[in-house]
Design brief:
The chain has 415 residues and is of the alpha+beta class. The protein folds into two domains: 7-76, no CATH class; 105-413, no CATH class. 20% of the residues lie in helices and 26% in strands. It has helices at 7-35, 37-51, 53-76, 309-312, 346-356; strands spanning 156-160, 166-173, 184-190, 194-199, 227-232, 244-246, 249-252, 259-264, 269-273, 284-289, 293-296, 299-300, 322-329, 335-344, 360-366, 373-379, 382-387, 408-413. The strands form three sheets. It has an eight-stranded antiparallel sheet, covered by helices on one side. The protein has a five-stranded antiparallel sheet with strand order 4-18-5-16-17, with no helix packed on it. A five-stranded antiparallel sheet has the order 7-6-10-8-9, with no helix packed on it. Strand 6 and strand 7 form a beta hairpin. It starts with 6 loop residues before the first helix and ends with a strand.
């Protein structure tokens, strides 16, 4: 006669089974995120519907921790190289995590106190773009490299308008001394020559009674020579209920005390704290929140380190290394920075923004697939899209050219 298992054994078997299932889910998510980013994103959304945002955020944090440990191990053995932005040279010297340098990021001079420009003239460019304009009247201020990554802090022409003027430059940083394989790309737009736009997705940010939205770039702005770049917006509504508005349609109301990017009727761009630096006004044609300011008045906001769901929503915590993106402004409000990269903690993202010259900034979306930037080239009457990170941002690269479900930004030529 079979004896029934004792309660202790049944509990042990249940725990082992649950552990095995959790392990298989982690392995599955790890594989999906690396090989099929869009599939991994869809799987995460299905899990959120089943087990909730909080549980999925914890699960994603575990996946990214395992992924980061594997990447560190693989990098130390020389099996993998850093993931680099378009045109960046292979690093010839990077700091080893085994013997970190004596310098620290905290000791890095502020971009406003950089070394003379001639100190950076020997740095090779990180990008070659054809055609190179004959004159470049605008260029971001020279920067001090954070590490010995070749070309770090040296701006290279990246995007030109129809007249051949360079309207956006590109550089990269290695902001995390503990992760030599983590490279952040920085795209700087001249807002004298370009204009930023914000589009609400057809679904996100979701609001039950929100009027229908097209989720599309207007036809006139999709014209060759007009559309210059497109990049991701922020978190979904359920992950933080952060405010969003475009063209008079309020998807979600703005929340007091949160970092906000606002676009005025004259095309002017502002980043600040809602209720302090900006308030509701008919002057705004669009605004987007995505948690507190990451950079505030030229310094890292202390709230960056609190990981509070009320501030940041139920997403992967700031200490977890993953793909992250952000948008920032220079002190005069005329240089717009888009920053993104793999294996970035929120601190590394903030350090990259400070190093680039941003004095106000907010984080945008995070995680593979959702962090997405494409430069738009014109080939006759056709648009050619070039991902900022060719090896990673090649999945549905034309997503913003159609009626997209998520919110996003795009940049056009012209004041």
């Amino acid at each position: 006669m079979n004896k029934r298992a004792s309660p202790g054994r049944r509990i042990l078997r249940w725990l082992l089974g649950a552990g095995l299932i959790a392990g298989l889910v982690l392995v599955g998510m790890f594989a999906a995120l690396n090989r099929w980013p869009s599939l991994g994103a869809q799987g995460a959304d299905l899990l959120r519907a089943a087990i909730g945002d909080k549980a999925v955020a914890a699960l994603e944090a575990g996946v990214f921790t395992v992924q980061d440990s594997f990447q560190q191990w693989s990098y130390d053995l020389g099996w993998t190289k850093p993931i680099l932005p378009a045109g960046a040279p292979t690093p010839v010297a990077v700091f080893s995590t085994a013997t970190p340098p004596s310098m620290t990021l905290a000791a890095t001079p502020s971009p406003s106190l950089t070394a003379p420009a001639q100190a950076l003239t020997t740095l090779p460019p990180i990008l070659t773009v054809s055609p190179i304009p004959t004159s470049t009247p605008w260029q971001p201020a020279s920067l001090v490299p954070l590490t010995s990554l070749r070309g770090e802090g040296g701006w290279s022409p990246y995007i030109q308008d129809a007249t051949g003027r360079t309207v956006a430059y590109l550089t990269s940083f290695q902001p995390d001394l503990g992760r030599a394989y983590a490279v952040a790309a920085v795209v700087a737009f001249d807002l004298h020559l370009t204009r930023l736009h914000f589009v609400l997705g057809t679904v996100q940010p979701y609001a039950p009674n929100s009027p229908p939205r097209t989720g599309a770039i207007p036809t006139a702005d999709r014209a060759p020579g007009v559309l210059l770049a497109m990049f991701n917006g922020g978190f979904k509504a359920q992950q933080g209920q952060f405010g969003a508005m475009a063209d008079g349609v309020v998807a979600l109301p703005a929340r007091e005390g949160l970092g906000t990017l606002a676009i005025g009727q004259e095309g002017d761009v502002h980043i600040g704290e809602w209720g302090v630096d900006m308030i509701a006004s008919p002057y705004w044609v669009a605004w987007r929140q995505n948690g507190p300011l990451v950079i505030q008045h030229g310094a890292i906001n202390p709230r960056v380190y609190n990981d509070s769901p009320s501030d940041w929503g139920y997403v992967v915590g700031g200490g977890s290394p993953t793909w992250r993106s952000a948008i920032g402004l220079s002190s005069d409000g005329m240089t717009l920075y888009y920053v993104c990269g793999p294996s970035l903690t929120i601190e590394a993202l903030a350090d990259s923004l400070i190093a680039a010259g941003a004095t106000e900034a907010i984080q945008l979306d995070i995680n593979p697939y959702w962090v997405h930037f494409v430069a738009v080239r014109t080939d006759g009457k056709k648009l050619t899209l070039e991902p900022l990170f060719p090896a990673q941002m090649n999945d549905n690269i034309d997503r913003y050219l159609w009626n997209y479900t998520r919110d996003y930004f795009y940049v056009t030529a012209g004041p």
